[in-house]
Design a protein that fits this description.
By secondary structure, the chain is of the alpha+beta class. Helices cover 30% and strands 28% of the residues. The chain is built from eleven helices and 19 strands. It is globular, with a radius of gyration of 20 Å.
């Protein structure tokens, strides 16, 4: 971690904490006592911080900042003979992060069971795929989309993508799952991105490992209804894609009653927004929710503002060109208790991502995680 990153981390960890006492959530410091008022904006700073079983890394766009993969490199670097690592990565450009590719090779050399699953963009930049094969062997470097844009797993006919970005590690009797929004390319390092690591959740690790294995075999072992797998605490749940029928994001937004002052939905989206999700956001606003969406293109903004029944303005849907996050943050009061839930990962908001892309979205309901992601979203679209 550079001195800039350490300074950023120190600044972040001195901010007010969210404290939980029994079943009542107390919000202290800059956010005041428990209320349903919208949170005050705080500028997110790039860096990583940890709390309990979690580590969250964020970048805010601008100068190249590969810190998400710096942290993955460290995690792989700590593995020893007999440990297991699985990586799924849509795009990996050779030499974009030399430290990471060397860490992968070194882990293999010292007897770590490490395997890569690369997406179709690796085919366009064949050097990454071929050089990893040369270093690790064909059994340890797998590929989806040998011709065109192909998914490992599909639920309907048509072109798809292996768009997932995650790492699983089993080491010294414990587990880690890293869920990222970023690919391994120099261009991605200049975007606003995030990653979240969950340590010690064997159920979550097993779910990600099973999904990785299914992608590697290119054969589903789950039904559509089985593609939501619970973790061990904090309402953690992994949502795997593509889906044949369900739309998890629509469901969770529809379930927010939006009947208390300050109930809100905040999102960061890097693609166009599918019509069903637009409708869910419109309905949430009509119920009384505060809505803020950061999108990366004017096309994505138009997909919301030009939709039938539009009740949004450009204040609700703001263009943030350097955003590559895929985040939903829901805030609601239930029985006098403030609930904040974060969904993050590599799942985009368009129909193609829902029906044809291999992706993961992780749900966490934890006050510390919520604070970090809330600050990131506030910095993108106040």
């Amino acid at each position: 971690m550079t001195e800039l990153h350490r300074a950023a981390w120190r600044r972040r960890t001195t901010r007010p904490a969210l404290l939980v006492a029994g079943s009542t959530l107390a919000v202290v410091g800059a956010f005041g006592a428990v209320t349903a008022n919208p949170p005050t904006s705080h500028a997110a700073v790039p860096g990583c911080e940890t709390s309990g079983v979690y580590e969250v890394c964020v970048t805010t766009g601008g100068p190249s900042n590969p810190i998400l993969f710096d942290e993955v490199t460290k995690k792989i670097g700590r593995t020893v003979k007999g440990d297991t690592v699985r990586i799924a990565m849509y795009t990996w450009k050779w030499n974009a992060h030399v430290g990471l590719q060397n860490a992968v090779t070194a882990a293999d050399n010292r007897g770590v069971n490490i395997k890569l699953l690369l997406g179709s963009k690796a085919e366009k930049n064949k050097s990454a795929y071929r050089k990893f094969v040369k270093r690790l062997g064909t059994k340890n470097v797998l590929f989806c989309g040998a011709t065109g844009n192909g998914a490992c797993l599909s639920r309907e006919r048509g072109p798809g993508l292996m768009h997932a970005k995650f790492v699983t590690i089993r080491s010294a009797g414990t587990t880690s799952v890293v869920t990222l929004s970023s690919n391994v390319t120099s261009g991605q390092f200049t975007k606003s991105q995030n990653s979240i690591t969950v340590n010690g959740d064997s159920a979550l690790h097993a779910a990600y490992r099973s999904y990785w294995k299914q992608m590697a075999k290119k054969k589903w072992a789950w039904s559509d209804a089985q593609q939501e797998r619970a973790g061990s605490a904090d309402m953690r749940k992994a949502y795997f894609f593509p889906r044949a029928k369900a739309d998890p994001l629509v469901r969770v937004i529809d379930n927010n009653a939006c009947d208390a002052e300050g109930d809100q939905v905040r999102m960061a989206i890097s693609q166009d927004v599918r019509p069903a999700l637009v409708k869910a956001l419109q309905n949430a606003k009509r119920r009384g929710c505060f809505i803020r969406v950061a999108v990366s293109t004017t096309s994505a903004q138009k997909s919301v503002l030009d939709a039938p029944g539009n009740n949004f303005t450009t204040a609700n849907v703001q263009v943030v060109p350097n955003n590559h996050n895929k985040i939903a943050y829901l805030r609601e009061m239930q029985g006098g208790v403030l609930l904040e839930t974060v969904f993050t990962g590599s799942h985009n908001a368009n129909n193609h991502a829902l029906r044809r892309a291999n992706d993961v979205m992780l749900r966490v309901r934890n006050p510390w995680v919520a604070r970090v992601y809330r600050e990131l979203l506030l910095s993108l679209a106040p």
